[in-house]
Amino acid sequence: MILMNINEQLQKAKEASYEAMGYTTKQKNDVLEEIKKSMLSNKEKILSANKKDLENGKKKGLNNALLDRLELNDSRIKGMTTALDEVIRFEDPIGKILEERTLYNGLRLKKISVPIGVIGVLYEARPNVTLDTAALCIKSGNVVLLKGDETAFYSNEAIIGAIKQGIKAAKLNEFLVQGIDARKKDDVLTMIKANNFVDLIIPRGGLNLMKFMRENSQVPFIGAGAGVCHTYVDESANLENAVKIVVNAKTQRPSVCNALETLVVHEKIAEKFLPLLEKELNAKNCEIRADKKAGKYLKKWKLADEKDWETEYLDYIISIKTVSSVEEAVNHIRKYGTMHSEAIISESKKAIDYFFKNVDAAAVYSNASTRFTDGGEFGLGMEVGISTQKIHARGPMGVKELTTYKYTIEGTGQIRG
Amino acid sequence: MILMNINEQLQKAKEASYEAMGYTTKQKNDVLEEIKKSMLSNKEKILSANKKDLENGKKKGLNNALLDRLELNDSRIKGMTTALDEVIRFEDPIGKILEERTLYNGLRLKKISVPIGVIGVLYEARPNVTLDTAALCIKSGNVVLLKGDETAFYSNEAIIGAIKQGIKAAKLNEFLVQGIDARKKDDVLTMIKANNFVDLIIPRGGLNLMKFMRENSQVPFIGAGAGVCHTYVDESANLENAVKIVVNAKTQRPSVCNALETLVVHEKIAEKFLPLLEKELNAKNCEIRADKKAGKYLKKWKLADEKDWETEYLDYIISIKTVSSVEEAVNHIRKYGTMHSEAIISESKKAIDYFFKNVDAAAVYSNASTRFTDGGEFGLGMEVGISTQKIHARGPMGVKELTTYKYTIEGTGQIRG
Q1: What are phi and psi of B400, to 5 degrees?
Q2: DSSP state, B140?
Q3: CA nearest A412 in B: which residue?
């Protein structure tokens, strides 16, 4: 690996972005094909780098869940290259004429989709994100700076090495994809302040990372993945559905951002519903932190405090809040939600309408698990993250969300009178 | 005016935004009608407040251009209320189903346009912006915090008073529109850091304001109106067109963001073109700051330095840079442009294509004046500003650009496997 300092890296990224904005669909697909080949021919190298990370992780005492997320093997590498095939099949989001008209004075105006430019992505653990993100950025004509987690340092270095080899084979600008050294905190700070070189940062992570970005970033950013998600079980809910959905949303994969953290339950059905739910949660070893009213109908629980309502557990822990109306449920969600995914379980059209109209989140569900908030599930293909901000993109961000637009205006000497 | 502190104002704005997101088209148009009535019935009050600002402005030594921008009179108030009629006629941008599909598992997914929420707008001098911005935010279901210029303090206070009277008459939430006291710098700081209450800031102004926002804002913002705009006169240009366009772009209204600041000229036509241009610029009393090569063909000029290339003069001053190719012109624009509006004057399709493909700006022109970058001219209607950022919206921002979207997902018990 060539050793460059962060300022050189940023300069190279900006230069590469001017080339990348002109790449044809064929050039972009060809480089993705080359990267796929290179991933496969470098498989052993990647796996042995990954082993090094796993050993370091064990020494550092990472838990099994984290070690599992970190681990690569033959089948996971195969999955990663299959994802590349998917990105190759995506329609090219660049160069689309979004609007076109002739103005009163004869000016010919077009609104055309273009790449954003240089995108910095901050993400954690899973090394497959490195390849997915690089592929999505390449397909959308962007240049990417990848800052993965320190625990995946060697894996990411090896994957980025393979990507660069693929880029070279395709004879494109090798600085299309660069790694930012996760061990150098100052480099990360430099990147998120480099508004002359970086056009967008996508920080993937929890509320602490979002706070850090707000306080430090001088580049526009789209926060992704902070999810204090709620499911509200209305008095009219079908309880069988409700149990099934809440258990799924909480326990099917608790470590992800679209997992449920707080159950909000109407007091009128709490007595019937909570014992049914507790049985299923017990079977999954899920800890319960509830308010007093909910506690009356539970056997094993702790009293929830203010902090519970604002915590993204990402674990087998659920908080339970009782309310006396859908309005109160919505108010709780407004206060503590992170605008990610919120659900209502109800058989009342009126309650669902109220919830849909008044809950301000990227994804609002009726009678389904919040776990579906995902680019693949929504039909956008792979995603670079799930935006919890309102500007530019909300919810899953696929290749289209990595574009912006410009206006071109063709004249024949028009001046303004 | 009720005296509230900034924290109360922010709280009230957030609460109002929950109401505003549910307003019907009729409610929004009715309140705009009431505001129009109220503007007319309060005309004398507004004019006498404006007189106070004008007197203070004269005492402070504001120049005539600024005093002219500040001044209101019968016909300008008429113009402002006519603009309200225009906004009433706009299509409602909210509640549009942008996408709709049934997923493989039967989930019914809709992507629906919704308001952004609470928008803070920082702007300067002209008091008509106060009414225009309030109207556009109301039409798009947003709540707005207006921070105008201190020099227009009394005018803005009177206009906001009239707006509030209209809102009351329509029986909507009076905190839909609030003024932020321009005299209290701490209030402005509080607002741009209040990410729990404010969803977007639109700072309208020059490069210094953008720097201030980058360094201080903790709310996502879309910088608007910093315009170091270029026009490149290619070796193949029709010189008659070129003179006409450059003079228009520079002098038709030099104080606005889409006015030309730097002329970039191909060295091969400099000798023929610059004397023709100088004659016309002289007639407008426009000062010329040029590089040495350009100076050879000019009579009255100063030598431009590095600072000239990065300055938004907003005045009768033009800088002139010679280049030896369209590539060099593009490089100059990349280095010094603010991604606002850039033009090429050329009869060569190849040069125009290169320029269009490689210049990264909100609006890229061939053979026309950059002065056309404007919501009205582009057919978007009135604008809240011209974005020079790449995220969310580029160029003129009308009501559509004041919206975001959410996904609603209707299920029948779906869980993720």
Answers
A1: -60, -40
A2: T
A3: B367
Residue type, B76: R
Give the relative orientation of helices B43-60 and B153-169 as an angle to the nearest 10 degrees: 160
pTM of the model: 0.94
Contacts of A358 in chain B (CB under 8 A): 18, 21-22
Interface touch B109/A378, C-beta < 8 Å? yes
Size of interface A-B (CB pairs under 8 A): 205
CB distance A330 to A234 below 8 Å: no
Task: Assess whether pLDDT exceeds 60 at residue A1.
Answer: no
Domains of chain A are: 6-224+384-410 (3.40.605.10), 229-377 (3.40.309.10)
Between chains, do B372 and A409 touch, taking CB under 8 Å as contact?
Answer: yes
Interface subset of B 188-227, CB within 8 angstroms of A: 195, 199-200, 214-215, 218, 220-222
Per-residue confidence (pLDDT) for residue A152, from 0 to 100? 95
CA–CA gap between residue A248 and residue A266 (Å, rounded)? 19
Residue B348 corresponds to which tokens in the numbers above? 């060569």
Say yes or no for a CB contact (<8 Å) between B390 and A220: yes
User: Residue A58 to residues A124, A155, A221, A314, B31: CA-CA distances in angstroms?
Assistant: 17, 15, 33, 21, 64
In whole angstroms, what is the distance from residue A389 CA to residue B214 CA? 18
- pLDDT of A306 higher than 90: yes
Q: Does B335 touch chain A (CB under 8 A)?
A: no
In sign, the C-alpha dihedral spanning B192, B196, B198, B199 is positive
CA atoms within 13 A on the CB side of B127: 31
How far is B4 from B179, CA to CA, in rounded Å? 11
| Residue (of A214, A275, A225) closest to B221 by Cα position | A214
Residue A215: its chain B contacts at CB < 8 A? 218
| Chain B contact present for A372, CB below 8 A | yes
Q: What pLDDT does B124 receive?
A: 85
Least CB–CB distance from A407: residue in B101, B107, B395? B395
Please judge whether B103 and A361 are an interchain contact, meaning their C-beta atoms are less than 8 angstroms apart. no
pLDDT over threshold 70, residue A3: no
How do strand A403-414 and strand A108-115 relate by DSSP bridges?
antiparallel
Q: Summarize pLDDT for B89-120 with one digit per residue, the tens.
A: 999 999 999 999 999 999 999 999 999 999 99
Neighbour tally for B97: CB within 10 Å: 11
Contact B369/A410, CB-based, under 8 Å?
Answer: no
CB contact under 8 A, B363 and A101: no
Condensed to tens digits (0 to 9), the pLDDT of residues A376-392 reads 899 888 899 999 999 99
User: CA-CA distance, A73 to A44, in Å (whole number)?
Assistant: 10
- 0.90 surpassed by complex ipTM: yes
Alpha-carbon distance B61 to nearest alpha carbon in chain A (angstroms): 30
d(CA B320, CA B308) in angstroms, rounded, equals 9
Closest chain B C-alpha to A27 CA, distance in angstroms: 16
Give the pLDDT confidence score for residue B32 in this predicted structure.
98
What is d(CA B118, CA B137) in angstroms, rounded to the nearest whole number? 9
